[in-house]
Write a structure and sequence with these properties.
Elements: E1 3-12, H1 20-37, E2 47-52, E3 55-64, E4 70-78, H2 79-82, H3 91-99, E5 111-114, E6 119-127, H4 132-145, E7 153-156, E8 163-166, E9 170-177, E10 180-181, E11 185-186, E12 189-190, E13 194-196, E14 205-207, H5 214-220, H6 228-245, E15 249-250, H7 254-261, E16 268-273, H8 283-294, E17 297-300, E18 306-314, H9 322-346, H10 351-354, E19 362-364, E20 368-369, H11 370-388, H12 392-401, H13 409-413, H14 420-428, H15 433-441, H16 456-468
Antiparallel strand pairs: 1-3, 1-9, 2-3, 4-6, 5-6, 7-8, 9-10, 11-12, 13-14, 15-17, 16-18, 17-18, 19-20
Helix pairs in contact: 1-4, 6-7, 8-9, 11-12, 11-16, 12-15, 12-16, 14-15, 15-16
Amino acid sequence: MATASLLIELHTEELPPKALQALSEAFASGIERGLRSRQFLTDTSAVTAFGAPRRLAVHISAVKGRSDDQPFRQKLVPVAIGLDALGNATAALLKKLKSLGAESADPKSLARESDGKQDVLVYEGVKAGESLADALQVALDDALARLPIPKVMSYQLADGRTTVQFVRPAHRLVALHGHAVVPVHALGLDAGTKTFGHRFHAPGEIAIHSADTWAQQLLDEGKVIASFEARHQRVAELVTDAAKKLGAHAVMPAELLDEVTALVEWPVVYESGFEEEFLQVPQECLILTMQQNQKYFALKDDAGKLLNRFLLVSHIETKDPSAIVTGNARVVRARLADAKFFYDQDRKSTLESRIPGLASVVYHNKLGSQLERVERITGIAVEIARALGVDTTHVERAARLAKADLRTLMVGEFPELQGTMGTYYARHDGEPADVAAAIEEHYRPRFAGDQLPTTKVGTCVALADKLET
């Protein structure tokens, strides 16, 4: 049976970036699973998933246009029930043969086999192969139904009457087997050859020539890098190169890189910055603000000190990016001003003064408040300190202050900074160095392979925190 490549693309409005990769992989695996179970794929079939801000797609090589005919054996009815005394077919046998599409079969030529109790009539035939269109329709419907959609959206089709539910409104469906359109439908769309490229750089329709030219046409005509992996690599390279030109190192966590990759079809990196006065705020606050709120890549020097420059990834390529650069600088300035305000306000009160407020923070409805938790942690930590010969005064102090930063504005805005901000505020309050360090260290290790506490005081409080939990 001749084979050809298969391409399925669903063109949509902008998909949720944090879910894009999972949606892309699930869509591809769903189509593959449906076709493989129906024997449309071969040992050489290769499956490639594509995920871009406005499209989910899958390319599969070596797909059959029709599945092979399959020989089969089907037990029918006992001989005593299927044949009368003259050997003619009974109504029961004829009904069974009709259900198999074998009305013309000669009852006397049917094979017989024993099931251990009686002889049973057996039909041996050939099941005709299935068309790709029929199999793909089932696979497509199943794949869409199984997508891990975080939140379903309802919208109406152009007719104003039909309501569709999907992760985002879908506009075009492309289904090509080689050069030929596979007549399937989904979400109120009929498959065709037309798609769209980049919203700004290539807003017109693109006629796809074949399944194998789709990705290259999107790249050349549509200014879209359809592969999530290729776009991911491109963003990482652009950010790294831009940072090197500035003599800096980009702060590039995997989560941020994944999210930015899911936001742009044609990544372009620009440099911008903010006023040096904001560097008075702990760099962890500034970095988290840039990453979470604006999806920027912060820059550090060789010594690990934050610079007042950052990199942003845009999906608009222009010879004059001044409007983009200044616009983003203006936006981040407001965000950093908020962080500076939180930091300044928090330092007006000591950590110690915040401890009573933990009584109004619920730890667990059956375990009491955070203040009660702190009292338990303190008792355990002091006992550990005695056993290890560590200064119990510093351990007790660190344990009592360990959760106090939960009452600060900064941690209220960025829960990820709990412990980190406590250490900064403890130093500002003049607490002993090992007490201040222990406030951050007592959360360690946060995950397998994470750093352990480096101070004895931190070790005692960290053990107590985990034992209490």
